[in-house]
Structures are given as structure tokens and as C-alpha cells.
Amino acid sequence: MPADFISNLFVFVLAAFLGIELIKRVSPLLHTPLMSLTNALDAIVVIAAIIIAGRHETRISTILGLVAVGASFSNMVGGFLITDRMLSMFKTTKAKKS
Amino acid sequence: MNPATLQQLIDFSYIAAVAGFILALKWLNSPASAMRGVVIAEIASAVAVVATLFDPQVVQYKWILIVLIIGAGVGIPLGLVKMTAVPQRTALSHAFGALSAALIGIAEYYVGTPNLSKFEMAEIGLEVVIGSLTFTGSIIAAGKLQEILRQRPIVYKGQNIVSLSTLAAAVTMIIVLMFHPGYTHLFGAMVGVALLFGVLLVMPIGGADMPTVISLLNSYAGFSAALLGFVLNSKVLVVAGALDGASGFILSVIMCKAMNRSFTNVLFGAFGQMQVATAKGTEERTVRSASAEDAAGILGSANKVIIAPGYGMAVAQAQHKVRELYDALTKRGVDVKFAIHPVAGRMPGHMNVLLAEADIPYDKLVEMDDVNGDFPQTDVALIIGANDVTNPAAREDQSSPIYGMPILDVDKARTVMVIKRSMGAGFAGIDNPLYYMDKTLMLFGDAKNFVGAIVKELAGEH
Q1: Of A59, B120, B129, B268, which residue is most buried, by most CB within 10 angstroms?
Q2: Does A45 sit within 8 Å of B104, measured CB to CB?
Q3: Stretch A80-85: mean pLDDT, rounded?
Q4: What ipTM did this prediction achieve?
């Protein structure tokens, strides 16, 4: 088993447990924005796509990488945009009156 | 700058990005700090993307920049959809996320083949299979939510056997590839089988189970990104994927609990079809129906009203009329709250977003567990487009298919009003004894028009 695998697994386990603890505390009011926000965070795979496409190794890997850049970046932009819009709609009674 | 320093700077920016992601999720614990969380997540993502563009491995830029612009061009309209379209948009973004993870895995395979170790091949194979099935599964889910595909479960004999054999075939192919990573055709076939499995997995699932399915797909999309992090040895992807996967997982668990069902039952049960037969055999019972005028009279003289919205409200686009009703009643001094069942609607939190969009303050949106104690002191429970989540049979009738599912205790209110198109059964095909109670008034009609009529009556009474 490669050494990288072990250190990645280490990070994965810590992040998954941290994620579970953090997400349990997210207000159920915000479960929809939570999903769109985590989608936008997940779109960070765009950085891997940029490297695959940018390395320009084989034609097929470059093309696949470029499609992945487009798909994930649209998720990043769209995900943040809609999360932003949703959260700006959540107001309290007091905020509405003022 | 020398390459080593540059690489370190890039790595530090990734670490900063990860910290930003974690803070963003932490601040989502309340609506007051949530906006701050999104801003920090946006900054974190931007930092990571910009840093990556400086990576010395990147030797060609032109196409990347063009595709980034195209991606933004696709993403912006998807970020501006109406709130009623959020469930299908979310499914589509799971599809995009899974697609990019799968494509990167496939690209890695073609770069590495045939010199991949067994371990690398297993990682890539697993990653590509999960990414591919999540891609097609999410596309089908989006199609169902957009009503391009039928929302009813699509079932046939031996379905589970066919689906599971497809999955088994994909796994077998990964194992063969581990020993023969140079079989590129087999790899292609594996991708095809995984794509097919995604379709088979989601096709039989009905509309009311969408909150669970969409959460599960969210979880898969996250885990495929984390696996990609393993393949590429990228810790940012491992962390972001683990956070996304954990989020989808927790939401799936919450959704399953709210329906008193297990994962396997959601995935392999095809709920809607199964239950239809049990709905028959009830004797003729009478219901009391009322007009908008009667309803307005009762609501206007109440002290405390709880509104229970469901998917029907979203379908009828009634949320803005509901806000007018809320305003009219609040102006008269009536205390109005909304009871939110976790699986009301088509995705987690669906009702909250619709009502917030209609400008209803979020402190009036109360979760099931917090609101249920209030019903006995409530004058009127008004149900708009919700059915199974208010069915007292879930609490009382052990023979009911939904027995054990936590429900909104609307039947404990002094008067119950149900806005409904007709006496047709709900999604699960189960009769709702609530409708036959003496204190229940059925308000037959389209939710939007009926609520509008009540608002008009309330205004006219002055």
C-alpha cells in the first residue's frame, strides 16, 4: 500500500468526522442552501481538471480535462450564486419591519 | 520565483482554502452567520483556483481560460433559476460534479495505462464507477424533478436482480482491470456499465422519495471527489469531497428517519407502486367541505394558526398567496406559524426556501419536533398540499404502510382545514383518516386560488 494512500486516508477520516460534526449543527432551515454550498465546495475538483488539461499530455486527457474544467467551474459559479441568493432571502420578523 | 517556493505557496493556498471551507460549514449553523460563510467559501475557492493557474505543470492556458468562461456562462443561469426549480437544479449540479470527477479519473487512466499498479487501478476504477453512476443517476433524478420523466416509480419484474447484477459486473471489471490495466476496451465497458447502473438505480424511485435520493446522490458526488483526491494525491479534494460526502450522508439519514425507512428500502422498495393495493376496502365515509368564506371566518377569529405546507404548495406555486394570507392574519393579531416536516417537498429544506423567498420571516418556520407540542393549543391547523406527513395513521394504525413515520400532529388542533384538489390519495396511495374527522374541513380547489380567495374574504370583512 503506497505511503500517500495512508496519509490521504488519515486526512479523509479526520475531514469526514469533522464534516459530520459540523453538518449536524447546521440549522434544518438551511438544508437546501447547505446542499448547494457543499456542491460549490465540491466543485474544487476544477483545480484537478485544470492540471489535467494544462499538462497537455495526450489529446484525450486534455479534452476530458477541459470538459471537466467546464462542468466543475459552472458548478462553482452557479452553486455560490444560488446559495447567495437563497441566504439573502432568510430574514427575521424584526429585520422585515425595519 | 524558484519552483520549490512556488509549489509551497500553492500548497499553502490550498490549506487556506480548506480552512475556509470548514469555517463556511460552521457558519451555516444559523441564518444570521450563513452569509459570512458563503463569502469565505467563495474567497477560498477563488484563491485555490488562481493558485492552480500558477502551477508549473500547467503549460497551456488558452483553452483552459476559454472553458472557464464557458463554465461561468453555463453556471450563472443555473444560479439564477427560480426557487421552485431548485431541486432539479441541485440534481443537475450533482450530475456536473460527478461528471467532472469521472472524466478526470478516465483521463488519469488513459495517461497511466498500461503502467498502473493494482492499487492505482482499483482506486481509479472505483472512482470512475461511482462518478459515472452518480452522473446518470442525477440526470434521471433531475429529469423526474423537472417532470420530463414520470415521477411515479418505473418498475418491472426482477428489477433489483438486474440492477444488482449490473453493479456486480462493474465491480468484476474493476478486478479484472487490476490485473490487466492495459485492457482499454474493458475500461470503456466498465464506464458504460456504471452509467447504466445509475439509470437503473434512480428510475424506480418515486417523487416523494426524492429528498432521500437527492441527498444520497450528493453523498456519492462528494465521495467520488474524495476518491479522486486519493487517485491524484490531492488533499484539498480529499477534504472537500469528505465534507460534501458527509453532508449528503447526514441529510440522507435525516430524510430516512423522517420517513421511518431504511436506505435499502428507499433504493429497492419502489414505495409508490407497492402500497396502492392496500388503500382499498374502506367503507363510504363522509367529509365536510367548506367555502373560502367559511374558512376566512374561522381563520380570522382564531388566536393561533399553524400552516403545514407540502409539495402541493410548491406545485401550485401558492407560496406568495400564502404570504398574503400570513400578512392578513398577522395584521388581525393572529399568531401564525409554519410547521415544516423534514421531507415536505422534493429536497431537504425545500419548504423553508420557498417560504423565505415569499418573504416569510424564518423565525416563523418551525421544525416538526419543535412545533408538534403546539398543536393542542392551536385553533386552526391549515394544511396546504401536504398529505402523508399529516396522516395520523402513521401514529395510530399499526397496519398502515407508513406506521411509525414521524408526522405533524395537525389532528390535535381544534379545527383542521385541508386545501386539496380532490379526495385522491397521496403519493403513498394511503387513505388519510384526518379527512374524515368531525373537526376537519376540506377546502377543495387549487391551493393558489383557494388561498387567494380566503385572503380576499379576509380583506372584504373590514
Answers
A1: B129
A2: yes
A3: 96
A4: 0.95
